[in-house]
Amino acid sequence: MRLVLASASPRRRELLAQLGITDVLVAPMDVDETANKNELPLPYVKRVALLKAAAAVRQYPDDVVLTADTVVAAGRRMLPKAETAEQVRECLELLSGRRHKVLTAVAVSFAGKTRLKISENVVKMQRLSASDIDSYAASGDGIGKAGGYALQGRAAGFISWLSGSPSGIIGLPLHETALMLETYCFQAS
Questions:
Q1: Which structural domain range is residue 165 located in?
Q2: Among the listed residues 55, 71, 188, 186, the one whose alpha carbon sits nearest the alpha carbon of residue 119
Q3: Residue 71 in 3-state DSSP?
Q4: What is the pTM of this model?
Q5: Which of 36, 51, 55, 56 makes the best surface tag, with the fewest CB within 10 Å?
Q6: Does 188 reside within a domain?
Q7: Is 24 helix (H, G, I), strand (E, B) or coil?
């Protein structure tokens, strides 16, 4: 039995390695991650993690499948995974001086059963100057990141406090993941 990580995120592989789990098959799933009309952040992140799990289970029915999805939410508004420096800038302008939530849903599937856990975190970003935002956006560090920033990167200096799981904010809550994987003999070392 092998572990299939249905994610292209190098951060999720690095986080699994922190648990001592390095022998994984990386198999990203291409699913439609478009939010439904009026969909709120928590139902969205659950739905997308389960969509990824269902797609991966179809391809790897005899393996343990691990999927996750992360969303940054300012109130009811979901921020995008920033694809451009301009999107990074827009996200940081919105998050500057505010609290926001980072929700990560993690799913483990095997033998027709899927377990889902949610890591709900609150992050407070300091008030950012225009030069802070411009410098960060130009660095490229926020590209490809939910909400346009990465806790494990330069943006860590912008976070005045957080409540919850740092690994959940990065994209794979280690406590919840370790507990679910232990069921299938993938134990943290």
A1: 3-182
A2: 71
A3: strand
A4: 0.92
A5: 36
A6: no
A7: strand
**Percent of the residues in the chain that have a pLDDT greater than 70, as a whole number:** 97
Q: Which residue among the candidates 63, 69, 132, 141 is catalytic per the annotation?
A: 69
CATH of the domain at 139: 3.90.950.10
Q: How far apart are the first and last CA of the chain?
A: 18
- Whole-number Å distance between alpha carbons of 10 and 134: 25
Mean pLDDT confidence for 151-180: 95
Buried-state track 87-108, b at ≥16 Cβ within 10 A, e below 16: bbbbbbebbbeeebbbbbbbbb
Give the pair of three-digit tokens for residue 91.
Answer: 């996200």
Known catalytic membership, residue 69: yes
Check if the beta carbon of residue 165 is closer than 8 Å to that of residue 174. Answer: yes
Q: What is the DSSP letter of 145?
A: S
Give the residue carrying structure tokens 């960060």: 136
Tokens representing residue 142 in the block: 């926020």
